[in-house]
Write a structure and sequence with these properties.
Elements lengths: L7 H9 L3 H22 L4 H8 L3 H9 L6 H7 L1
């Protein structure tokens, strides 16, 4: 038997993520949100994080908006 979502929004989300494109977009936004959350927890500005990553502030802003393609090397550096 399939487990039913606890909230109606979960059901809508589950239905909307059935296409590969939608799922990929959702995952990018999840990663973007994590980057922003962790930057804020570390009390860093976008500029400070950019300097640590040897990139620009605008690149960090794109990462946090889910509009920057992230390389494996960059993800390892972030970790």
């Amino acid at each position: 038997m399939q487990k039913l979502p606890k909230f109606p929004a979960e059901h809508i989300l589950a239905l909307s993520l059935k296409t590969p494109y939608a799922l990929e977009s959702y995952e990018k936004l999840q990663i973007a949100a994590q980057i922003k959350k962790l930057r804020r927890l570390a009390a860093l500005t976008q500029m400070e994080l950019a300097k640590k990553l040897k990139t620009s502030q605008s690149a960090v802003a794109r990462m946090e908006a889910g509009k920057q393609n992230l390389s494996l090397r960059l993800l390892v550096t972030l970790a």
